[in-house]
Specification:
The protein is globular. The strands form 2 sheets. Strands 3-2-1-4-5-6-7 form a 7-stranded parallel beta sheet, with helices on both faces. It has a 7-stranded mixed beta sheet with strand order 8-11-10-9-12-13-14, covered by helices on one side. Helix 4 packs parallel to helix 5 and helix 8 packs across helix 12. It is an alpha/beta fold and 384 residues long. The protein folds into 2 domains: 188 residues, Rossmann fold (3-Layer(aba) Sandwich); 165 residues, Rossmann fold (3-Layer(aba) Sandwich). The protein is built from 15 helices and 14 strands.
Length: 384
């Protein structure tokens, strides 16, 4: 019997976290992929992730608009509620055998709530991890709503079981994003012009020279400080005098403040040496990052993919607080001098080391096989 597996992608970062799994599900003879793309993944303002999804051969079964813009706590809360309503309607129509939800965004929680009340088994990817911000609450809440857990590390498995989950429902698969990193490591050549292909705003520079990559998002629990936090990073990078790519923030509370600071910086610094980009395909992004001297900001990319690729990284602030990390990461706070010093230390590194903390590049295939053969249940009880 063929199982219908529904995957919900609600935001730009979620696609790289699930792409290899989509491919493995689509190829598996006992599985049928149902794909819902929703939220900011549909919006040009946040890089139109749906376009990359289609280009890779995944046709959405449904597209759902449920995001209320504004970049505030209230807009995030309302978007969560609207997502529950809209996603529930589509899940009720599709009636999948299981639903996959990814990581720890507010849309992830909405998806898990909708599926749970429709008696659809929930499969959670990237549970059991520790970070700062509201992501911590959301991630663990989704764990308790889930029936099957695909975690990235042994420590994550221990935490999920400690929360009362059945050990037989917890699988250490690694993170699917490492599957893409493994592919890029085998073919690292930048065989495209990022300035022409992605049309970023700002300077064009020589990719054969030293450059950095920046991904800095607002911290929901510190959203009132988004302006000053962004200015600290911009000022530190300007002092360095090294060009780089700066990627647009996620649509969380404080995102408008981050965007405002970026625009002010562009106006006041006519030649800052930075190219501001909304999005790239997951593989293109990793190729750009791999060729860079350092990845800077507070994205989990610096901790996951960059650890596997050995890319030096500077993690700023509390967004990734206490998340397991490799030796490639230096942690710093939102202080211009500290950021400057940390980046300088990282770009001076002369060697790189691969770390398989988050997997060995086979997560997608492992997940698909488990989904095809495991016992899918909706009932669960607390085991402590």
């Amino acid at each position: 019997m063929i199982r219908n597996i529904c995957v919900v992608i609600t935001a730009r970062p979620s696609y790289s976290r699930i792409k290899s799994t989509l491919d493995s599900i689509q190829k598996h003879p006992q599985l049928n992929l149902q794909l819902i793309v929703s939220g900011s993944a549909l919006l040009a303002k946040y890089g139109s992730a749906v376009d990359f999804i289609r280009a890779d051969g995944f046709e959405p079964t449904a597209e759902i608009y449920h995001m209320i813009e504004g970049g505030t706590l209230l807009s995030s809360a309302k978007s969560t509620g609207l997502a529950v309503i809209e996603i529930a309607s589509e899940l009720n129509r599709l009636q999948p055998d299981a639903l996959i939800t990814i990581a720890d965004r507010y849309e992830t929680l909405a998806t898990a709530i909708a599926a749970s009340y429709l008696n659809i088994p929930v499969v959670h990817i990237q549970g059991g991890e520790i970070t700062g911000s509201i992501d911590e609450k959301v991630r663990h809440a989704v764990t308790k709503l889930s029936n099957l857990h695909f975690v990235s590390t042994q420590e994550a498995k221990r935490r999920v079981i400690a929360m009362g989950e059945n050990p037989n429902s917890v699988y250490v698969t690694g993170c699917p994003s490492i599957d893409l990193a493994k592919q890029v490591l085998q073919n690292p050549q930048i065989d495209f012009n990022p300035f022409q292909k992605y049309g970023g705003v700002g300077d064009i520079f020589d990719l054969n020279e030293d450059y950095i990559v920046v991904m800095q998002h607002p911290i929901t629990t510190e959203y009132t400080e988004a302006n000053t936090q962004t200015r600290s990073t911009l000022s530190a990078i300007r002092r360095l005098g090294i060009p780089g790519f700066w990627f647009w923030p996620n649509p969380d509370a404080g995102s408008e403040a981050v965007a405002k600071e970026i625009r002010i910086f562009r106006e006041r610094n006519k030649t800052p040496g930075i190219n501001f980009v909304r999005n790239m395909s997951p593989e293109d992004f990793l190729k750009i990052a791999l060729a860079s001297k350092c990845v800077v900001g507070n994205s989990s990319v610096a901790i996951r993919e960059c650890s596997y690729l050995g890319i030096p990284a500077v993690n700023i602030g509390n967004r990734q607080l206490n998340r397991e990390r490799g030796k490639n990461v230096i942690d710093t706070q939102h202080d211009e001098n500290d950021i400057y010093t940390s980046i300088q230390k990282q770009i001076d590194k002369t060697s790189r080391e691969i770390d398989t903390l988050y997997g060995n590049g086979e997560a997608g295939e492992i997940m698909a096989e488990i989904l095809a053969t495991c016992d899918l249940r909706i009932e669960k009880t607390l085991l402590i």
